[in-house]
């Protein structure tokens, strides 16, 4: 690494000259960003190679995290920080008259994910490397990440995202390690000499998977792990093909990331992506294993493969295929190795989100894989028959293939040794309800791993002011041992400390206000309460409850002269899946309320509504530190965990939330008095669900706050929106309000009122905020990853920094 600032400056100027062929004076900020990026990446190279060598020589067990999404965001600052050269670089650039912050802004987010699941994968990579664990990611190098969102006339408009337009400095293309992935064709079988069957996949269409490797540097360690992303290219020698068509069809496989649309019918391209990821990754894993071992008999002792939701579940039949067809193992031996290698995380209980593939799509596309899945299912059903003889319904319910479909979650549970949920309540719901029959059959496979977030990005990087205050107060041991952040609790009654907390929050609010002023041309008041809901738009997350409540507050301010409240700014950020009609209506509604409220001179000093365009990781980093209130208001039982809730907590925002997902654990850690809980509990929701719902019409008739806001949706209150919000009103009244928005309205209004009062007592609020920060250490993904390492993967860090 650079020994000092001057060595850095020299290397940087040289790199700049070499990469852009311009003098320093002529170079643009973009030139400088790319030169710096390349310089840093090259500096990583030696350690990267050393890490790989060390893993090879020590035969350390390797973990591979397979995920269809990695939502990385920007990497420059993270890499500088983790490599321990942030100060040298910042100061060196400063000497040259360059502000590192401006260069950071040049980097386009790597947005290869939808939301929670993809961001979790990115946080996990950071924790794995920072804990010196041998854990690597495998994913897809989509040409277009999640769409870019524009708001036009209050409507969401989607534009293709272009993160690769100027190249990506953090990746290294490795064409010599390309792998061919077969689709279509047919399978031939014949008898071998020993009487067993052999299989060959013929006439397949081959798609080449080219790896692009990205270094994942641990925080001030010398471990550099790898994130390998596969790009689809045409195979080298297509015969008898219309070349242009063929090129287009193959490249399509890694063309774009599917938006999370739980209502979407399975698309063949999506299944192609899944097998593409799995086939290329397994081959690469097996190749590197073979460099150290002569047979695959002990594969599971040295390799763990983790599947992030069911999207990469074909890793199970693919590993079986390798062991059976290529290694010639018996079914029993291959199955034993496979189950012991694979582990699976479930991220949802929504039945409509569980993946199923029609056989008519699956079988022709992946003929050999289908045969193996078929055999897995046969054997599984036979086993079930031994245990539950005669119980046809149960066996039908649990089967992997049934009614013309392949059920991916069933395959995942049957073919792995560990199945985990992502928060305590979620895991209980899996065990006792959604996957109860599997839990009865395999009680030991089920376990909980409450999610976490990397405190290095979500506190140290995004909130430098708070980080400094923490370091100045309790030292920096908490960075390596995040639960040590609880030492802050000693400052609970220290007015000077609380005052500093308040100053920092204010500055972070000013920073965000400035961004909002520039982007939306909207002035917001940094001394108002910043009440924030940022997450994907989904009916179950209930952005609707929030905005209807805002409308109610507006009505109060207009009509009720005795009504008063501390000034509030409600901030929303959310992308809706392009085909999710209802979600898009809610975006329009938020913007219509914003237009009304923000332009009313009578209320605009007390109430503002902001819809942040194109919510993404880099914007999130400005949002969490600036929030006073964190909205986590999903219908109980529906949000598996949430991770935004943890990011808010770590930055001192107070949660207004339901007893859902990880909110429950946040409440346990922070204490009942430091969180605002409201609404139906999971048990109450489940009870209603057993009864077929509740009567939302009653709530409409008996609560005039509700009838008023719902009437406003359709009576022309919002100019030029005739018919616009019928679907929303109808879902609440005619379709019985599936997510209990009206049922929870009163409780929500009351808790929001309580939160407003608490804020007015600033000393009390700051103490609550401190309690949240001080107890957030549990939610570091370092804790989560240690649990995965100990309980699921059986790996430990053997490496001490030298
Ligand atoms: C499925 C089929 C076709 C196309 C896309 C999809 C698809 C893509 C992404 C389905 C789901 C997702 C993403 C799900 C997700 O992000 N789940 C969230 O995971 C977080 C991490 O565990 C949890 O905190 C959240 O509660 C959960 O909603």
Automatic annotation (TrEMBL):
Please tell me whether the keyword Transferase is annotated for this protein.
yes
Please list the reactions this protein catalyses. Answer: [(1->4)-alpha-D-glucosyl](n) + phosphate = [(1->4)-alpha-D-glucosyl](n-1) + alpha-D-glucose 1-phosphate
Is this entry keyworded Glycosyltransferase?
Answer: yes
InterPro entries linked to this entry: Glycg_phsphrylas, Glyco_trans_35, Pyridoxal_P_attach_site
Gene Ontology CC annotations of this record: cytoplasm
**Cofactor(s) the record lists:** pyridoxal 5'-phosphate
Against PROSITE patterns, the record matches this protein to: PHOSPHORYLASE (PS00102)
Gene3D superfamilies, per the entry: Glycogen Phosphorylase B
Q: Which UniProt keywords apply?
A: Carbohydrate metabolism, Glycogen metabolism, Glycosyltransferase, Pyridoxal phosphate, Transferase
Instruction: Output the NCBIfam families linked to this UniProt entry.
Output: P_ylase
Q: What is this protein called?
A: Alpha-1,4 glucan phosphorylase
Q: Name its species.
A: Bacillus mesophilum
Species lineage: Bacteria, Bacillati, Bacillota, Bacilli, Bacillales
């Amino acid at each position: 690494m650079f020994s000092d600032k001057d060595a850095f400056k020299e290397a940087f100027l040289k790199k700049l000259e070499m990469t852009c062929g311009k003098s320093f004076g002529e170079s643009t900020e973009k030139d400088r960003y790319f030169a710096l990026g390349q310089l840093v990446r090259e500096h990583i190279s030696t350690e990267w190679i050393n890490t790989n060598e060390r893993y090879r020589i020590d035969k350390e067990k390797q973990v591979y995290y397979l995920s269809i999404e990695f939502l990385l965001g920007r990497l420059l600052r993270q890499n500088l920080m983790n490599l321990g050269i942030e100060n040298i670089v910042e100061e060196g650039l400063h000497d040259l008259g360059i502000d590192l912050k401006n260069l950071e802004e040049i980097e386009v987010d790597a947005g290869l994910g939808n939301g929670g699941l993809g961001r979790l994968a990115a946080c996990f990579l950071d924790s794995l490397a920072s804990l010196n664990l041998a854990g690597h990611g495998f994913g897809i190098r989509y040409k277009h990440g999640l769409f870019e969102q524009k708001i036009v006339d209050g409507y969401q408009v989607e534009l293709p995202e272009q993160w690769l337009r100027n190249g990506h400095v953090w990746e290294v293309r490795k064409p010599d390690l390309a792998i061919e992935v077969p689709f279509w064709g047919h399978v031939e079988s014949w008898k071998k000499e020993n009487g067993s069957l052999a299989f060959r996949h013929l006439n397949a269409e081959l798609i080449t998977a080219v790896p692009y490797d990205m270094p994942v540097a641990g925080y001030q360690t010398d471990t550099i792990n790898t994130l390998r992303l596969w790009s689809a290219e045409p195979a080298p020698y297509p015969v008898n093909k219309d070349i242009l068509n063929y090129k287009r069809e193959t490249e399509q496989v890694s063309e774009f990331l599917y938006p999370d649309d739980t209502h979407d019918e399975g698309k063949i391209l999506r299944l192609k992506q899944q097998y593409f990821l799995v086939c290329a990754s397994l081959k690469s894993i097996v190749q590197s294993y073979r460099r150290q071992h002569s047979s695959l008999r002990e594969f599971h002792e040295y390799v763990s493969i983790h599947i992030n939701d069911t999207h990469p579940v074909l890793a199970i039949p693919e590993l079986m295929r390798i062991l059976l067809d290529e290694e010639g193992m018996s079914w029993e031996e291959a199955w034993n190795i496979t189950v012991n290698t694979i582990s699976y995380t479930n991220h949802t209980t929504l039945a409509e989100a569980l993946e199923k593939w029609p056989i008519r799509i699956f079988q022709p596309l992946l003929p050999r894989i289908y045969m193996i899945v078929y055999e897995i299912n046969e054997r599984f059903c036979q086993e079930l028959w031994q245990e539950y003889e005669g119980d046809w319904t149960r066996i039908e319910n649990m089967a992997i293939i049934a009614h013309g479909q392949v059920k991916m979650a069933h395959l995942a549970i049957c073919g792995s040794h560990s199945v985990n949920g992502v928060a305590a309540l979620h895991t209980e719901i899996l065990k006792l309800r959604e996957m109860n029959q599997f839990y009865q059959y395999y009680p030991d496979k089920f376990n909980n791993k409450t999610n976490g977030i990397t405190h290095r990005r979500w506190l140290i990087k995004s909130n430098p002011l708070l980080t400094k205050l923490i370091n100045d107060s309790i030292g920096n041991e908490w960075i390596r041992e995040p639960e040590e952040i609880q030492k802050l609790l000693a400052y609970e009654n220290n007015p000077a400390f609380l005052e500093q907390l308040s100053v920092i929050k204010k500055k972070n609010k000013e920073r965000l206000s400035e961004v909002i002023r520039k982007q939306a041309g909207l002035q917001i008041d940094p001394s108002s309460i910043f009440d924030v809901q940022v997450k994907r738009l989904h009916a179950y997350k209930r952005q609707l409850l929030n905005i209807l409540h805002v409308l109610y507050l507006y009505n109060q301010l207009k009509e009720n002269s005795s009504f008063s409240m501390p000034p509030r700014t409600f901030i929303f950020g959310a992308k809706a899946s392009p085909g999710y009609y209802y979600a898009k209506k809610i975006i329009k509604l938020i913007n219509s309320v914003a237009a009304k409220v923000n332009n009313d001179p009578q209320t605009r000093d007390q109430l503002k509504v902001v819809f942040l365009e194109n919510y993404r990781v880099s914007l999130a980093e400005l949002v969490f530190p600036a929030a006073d209130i964190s909205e986590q208001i999903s219908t109980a039982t529906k949000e598996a965990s949430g991770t935004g809730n943890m990011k808010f907590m770590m930055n001192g925002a107070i949660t207004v939330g339901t007893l859902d997902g990880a909110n429950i654990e946040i409440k346990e850690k922070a204490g009942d008095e430091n969180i605002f809980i409201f609404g139906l509990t999971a048990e109450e929701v489940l009870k209603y669900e057993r009864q077929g719902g509740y009567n939302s019409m009653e709530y409409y008739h008996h609560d005039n706050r509700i009838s008023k806001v719902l009437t406003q949706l359709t009576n022309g209150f919002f100019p030029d929106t005739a018919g616009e919000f019928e679907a929303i009103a109808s879902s609440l009244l005619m379709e019985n309000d599936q997510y209990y928005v009206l049922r929870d309205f009163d409780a929500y209004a009351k808790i929001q009122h309580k939160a407003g009062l608490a804020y007015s007592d600033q000393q009390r609020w700051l103490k609550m905020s401190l309690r949240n920060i001080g107890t957030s250490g549990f939610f570091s993904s370092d804790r989560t990853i240690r649990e995965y390492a100990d309980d699921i993967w059986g790996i430990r860090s053997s490496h001490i920094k030298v």
